[in-house]
Amino acid sequence: MDAISITVNGKEHSVEVSPDTPLLWVLRDTIGLTGTKFGCGMALCGACTVHIDGEPARSCTTRISAVAGRKITTIEGLSAGGRHPVQLAWQSAQVPQCGYCQAGMIMTSAALLAKNSSPTDADIDEALGGHICRCGTYQRIRAAIHQAASQPSERKSGAGEPR
Amino acid sequence: MSAPAKDLARSTRREFLKTGAAGAAALVIGFYVPSEGEGAAAKSFAPNAYVQIKPSGEIRLVIARSEMGQGPRTSLAMILAEELDADWSRVKVQQADLDPKYGDMTTGGSFSVRSSWGPLRQAGASARSMLITAAANSWSVPPGECTTRHSAVHHAASKRQLSYGELAEKAAALPVPKDAPLKKTNEYRMLGKKEDRVDGHPIVVGEAHYGIDTRLPGMLYAAVTRPPTFGGRLKSFDAAPALSVAGVRKVVEVRAVELPPLFGEERKPNSGHQHYLWGGVAIVADSTWQAIAGCRAVKAEWDQGPGASESTEEQRAQCAAMVKGSGKELRKIGDPEGTFASAAKKIEAEYELPFVAHASMEPMNCTAWVREGKCEVWAPVQNPGAMATAIATALGIPSSTITIHITLLGGGFGRRLNIDYGVEAALISRAAGAPVKVAWTREDDMRHDYYRPMSHHRLRAGLDAQNQITAWLHHVAAPTTDGFYVGGDLPDMGGTELAGVGLPNGTVPNYLLEQSFLHTAVPRGYWRSVDVFWNHFAVQSFIDEVAAASGADPLELRRRLIDTKQPPAAGGDESKPVDVKRLRAVMDLAAERSGWAAPLEARRGRGIASLFGWDSYIANVAEATVAKDGSIRVDRIVTAIDCGQVINPDMIRAQMEGGIVWGLTAAFYSQITVENGQPQQFNFNDYPVLRIADMPRVEVHIIPSHESPGGVGEPTVPCVAPAVANAIFAATGKRLRRLPFQTQELAQS
Question: What is the pLDDT of residues A105-137, one digit of tens each?
Fold first, then answer.
């Protein structure tokens, strides 16, 4: 196994894993960043969403070999101290119930707001259509994204930035 | 009461009986919890197992229930803090490990607040009373002149105050009072007001610790290949292909193990229970991915077991045939058959529901470390006590050597009342000689669940010439859930006849409830709202069918049913009678807020369903639009709930919103089908669930009350599918009697 180099939350890691290993398990088992969650392994639920060069991606079906040399941001690196407007709105709207799917929801929402500063409900439904929450927090997710969108724009630029 | 709640109540009572009055008191007071690894422990004030106040003023509250999104870490802490008059900003909440000093730690049946309401108020009140005594002694004033607020005792006349931290050491030296007075409801400062979750921040920054996030020094990772058919067992296997996978350390046979009942029940000998860990082949590796790869490589032969020829279509036919005959009589009033036979108008309908999975977002997993005759476990578990018992039995070591750390649960919904995944992890750790985290894939989780049973219902109602219901007959065919664990054909409805089967039981003069049992190898389990879900879908739909046949408004008919006669107390363990005024109030409120009487455009309709269950009263009004192609859009659901004393209204709203999503998923999507003894579903592609685009607008209205708190996790769930089915009927005149809804029946030709 050759070492593969990836940058996670601004820090470079050299990992020795089989090239077909999904990014998800490298993050969780090799690097020890467990904030990114395993839900389905088939890119059906969105729980494992991270940013790859700022774009939301399903880490459970992304081979590590495909992200060599690229910048990965996980929920742990989305902001310093949870100050990203999406994270703040998530707490203000009290979105999480069990919370397991929420890292993925937050990562996709942050990426959505980075591109679309005032998404409609339809935009939100489309962006988050690949995500599943079994606790049923969807109504609050919509509200929280609208709330985050109403924050001053400079605070939204934090999406994808390492802390 | 739901089956788990019923059993919880039973086992809690048994616990109290066993330990006697002193034991019951000891559950609440008299235990000392030393603070962790600090010399100042002696100076801390810890009058019971739940409250600890440090000289610094920090207050640690211990939560002995599992957090799976329903909020006990916050709501139970609020109950303690209210009676304690604690400064909430100085409160730290600690999750308890499994410990007998907390009594029964099972979390289920919408029971956490209900079962903790008395003990936790007492725990908070006795601590507060001791702090007052300590302050009064310091000032040489009567305790009655002292008041408490924000973690301090005040003496108004002398304008003096002492903080709880300053009083901690003195209070610790005082005797614990037996019956400290509780606050009056008009003295509440916290209860009934919105409070943010105590663990909201770690969740949004990715630092919350779920079971699957457990990491230990030297920990190995495992995945397991399990029998493909229900009730199958491992015959033989070839480890070599798996051992050639990079990172695979060991291939371990997991033997089949008989598991105990979940709630401490006694099994009769030879009762034919089906509660086993079925075993399989475990691959132990350096990472989860390598373990999964090893699982795919291993070659195993299986004994297919007794259920190998089962199929859903055959079982549907069996159930349909059974309800035509007679079953085990569960409740009979008057002469239902005779009255029905001679009724002026006869109405009949059959309903059916499938097996469904839990599919919590965090798949099953458990980390275990067996060493030196002990076993330490990190588990996302609702039922740690039974898990410890089962592990001890499987390993052949005393229960006292088992430690269970309860992690955060990425959803539970009843699946984690089961204990299979803990026993499996312990057996694998022992065989591997290392701490091992066993992670299940989504497919493992979907195909090795304990499924909410399928059921088939035949309902008949006889009306007299004035359209009054004179006879009501309900025959359910379903496999038993309680009997799966305990053995025998046990009806799951013993305690929930009124809550689940609901009205008009007791409000019509001639009534019959009977059950026939489908025998199957498909594992059954408790699922959010349990048997109430399936019975309520049938009954609340059929009330509307009776309304339609008799030309009555569905809301009016429901009002008339409960106004006719006071229903009796539900059978079994449910001791509280239905308070028809409270039931009526939630129906009226939901109707009013939904604009029940206002006309809707073509192919749009409203439907109602209501319930008394888990000590709460609830009504849902659903508003739905049916497109010409038969597709259904649920536009809005208006919920009214009276759950007694409100602890945290925002959490109640969240549970209503979530319960509605749970109910909608079951109404529109969920079904596990079986072919050749195997489930046909694998993952979220073939077991779809509700996604954000289908989320209706949910409006929650809470009726203020100071009655004892009721449960909130489950009650709204059974009122979703029938409210929507009734709305669809109102929109189209077509009745959907099968879940998930077969929407093709609604397409306009």
Answer: 999 999 999 999 999 999 999 999 999 999 999
Residue boundaries of the structural domains of chain B: 3-196, 211-307+362-447, 579-749
Q: Does B579-749 match B211-307+362-447 at the fold level? A: yes
- Inspect the interface and report whether the beta carbons of B287 and A17 lie closer than 8 Å: yes
> Could you name the CATH architecture of A80-158?
Orthogonal Bundle (1.10)
What CATH number does the domain located at A3-74 have?
3.10.20.30
Check whether the bond before B740 is cis (ω within 30° of 0).
yes
Query: Contact at 8 Å (CB) between A1 and A18?
Result: yes
Verify whether the Cβ–Cβ distance B691 to A36 is below 8 Å: no
Give the B window 667-696 contacts with A, CB below 8 Å.
683-685, 689-693, 695
Measured CA to CA, the distance from residue A52 to residue A58 in angstroms comes to 9
Contact A113, A88 (CB under 8 A): no
Answer yes or no: is pLDDT of B211 > 50: yes
The helix (run of H) or strand (run of E) holding residue A145 is: helix A138-149
**Which of B197, B290, B659 shows the shortest C-beta gap to A94?**
B197
Q: Where are the domains of chain A?
A: 3-74, 80-158
Residue reference for tokens 């690196």: A77
Second CATH level (architecture) for the domain B3-196: 2-Layer Sandwich (3.30)
Q: Name the closest residue on chain B to residue A60, using Cα atoms.
A: B289
CATH node for B579-749: 3.30.365.10
Query: Are residues B438 and B363 in contact, defined by beta-carbon separation less than 8 angstroms?
Result: no
The pair of structure tokens assigned to B93 is 């909440």
Topology of domain B211-307+362-447, CATH: Aldehyde Oxidoreductase; domain 4 (3.30.365)
What's the gap in Å between the CA of A132 and the closest CA on chain B? 6
pLDDT (tens digit per residue) in B464-485: 999 999 999 999 999 999 999 9
Give the three-class secondary structure for B725: helix
Report the C-alpha gap between B75 and B190 in whole angstroms.
10
Q: How is residue B719 written in tokens?
A: 């009122």
- B377 neighbors B404 (Cβ within 8 angstroms): yes
- Rounded to two decimals, what is the model's pTM? 0.94
**Strand bridging mode A49-52 / A71-73:** antiparallel
B660–chain A Cβ distance below 8 A for any pair: yes
**B288 neighbors B215 (Cβ within 8 angstroms):** no
**SS3 state of residue B739:** coil
Closest CA to B263 of B461, B37, B417, B33: B417
| DSSP letters spanning B265-318 | PPPPTT-----EE--EEEEEESSHHHHHHHHHH-EEEEE--TTTT--HHHHHHH
